[in-house]
Amino acid sequence: MSQPVRICFSDIDGTIMHDPNEQDRDAELLVTPPSASGRQGAISAQTIHQVAALRSKGVMFVVITGARLSTLLMRLPYLPAADAFVCENGGRVFYPGSPLPTACPITEDAHWRDTQAAAGPTSQDGVEPKARTGALWEWYAKLAADGWVLDANGYTTSFRCHAKGGKSMAQLEALAKEAPQGLDSSFNLGAADFYPDTSGKVRAARYLMARFQARAQDCVFLCDDDNDMELAAEVGRAYLPSVTSESVRRAVAARPEHFVQATKKGTEATEEMLLAVSKDYKLL
């Protein structure tokens, strides 16, 4: 009997990449340049080899992150080879390979991007956010006028809103519930991300599961934050190299059998969880 299609989805920050300043181990690490927000990521060579081993045994690997497009593209040389790369909380989907012999060949799923109508067309990616068309950018302009601290630098189908400049977290949580029709939101790294309601990690993952003919119960997810929990609940099992929000703790408490938590920290925790995935898939 042939094996079902299996996909290991993985977030980036706090999952397969960690703060390089918090890594205290004698291991080969790759450290990325700073992103647009100034964050750097450290990933172990062992992690890259473990993902390659998973893929060599028939498990697909999909990177799925809330990071902005510019950050994903900058980090590609440091990420494990994968079957798809998803960024901006699901707004953009890319596959390895290109008809041109480029240095880092990837090709965007144009059909998926076209479904993100609230973000407007790709032709405006280089336009100042306030001047872009689409419900997402109309909301951006309104929030900017209302004094919210926003970050759209390098984003194309999403933007980030912070509880700063006199705005409280309680106000931000209330704001997230007030997003206009056609938009959705989730929290990541203590900020609210707004994006089209056709996007989101779980919707992008469903699209890819359908494309690759995989059942949710045969898939797993390496994750750590609030914006991961909807997809974590949908797949067969979720693995937590770290826990970075209270909503994740609540999810674990509600379904402890569904989550596997690392006992180690940082890049060692990632390796521990990838080993757990291999064991649960009976690959070892």
Automatic annotation (TrEMBL):
Pfam families recorded: S6PP
Q: Name one GO molecular function term.
A: catalytic activity
Q: Which Gene3D superfamilies match?
A: HAD superfamily/HAD-like (3.40.50.1000)
InterPro entries xref list:
HAD-like_sf, HAD_sf, SPP-like_dom
- Segments forming domain Sucrose phosphatase-like: 153-233
Check the UniProt entry and state the signal peptide residues, or none: none
Descriptive protein name? Sucrose phosphatase-like domain-containing protein
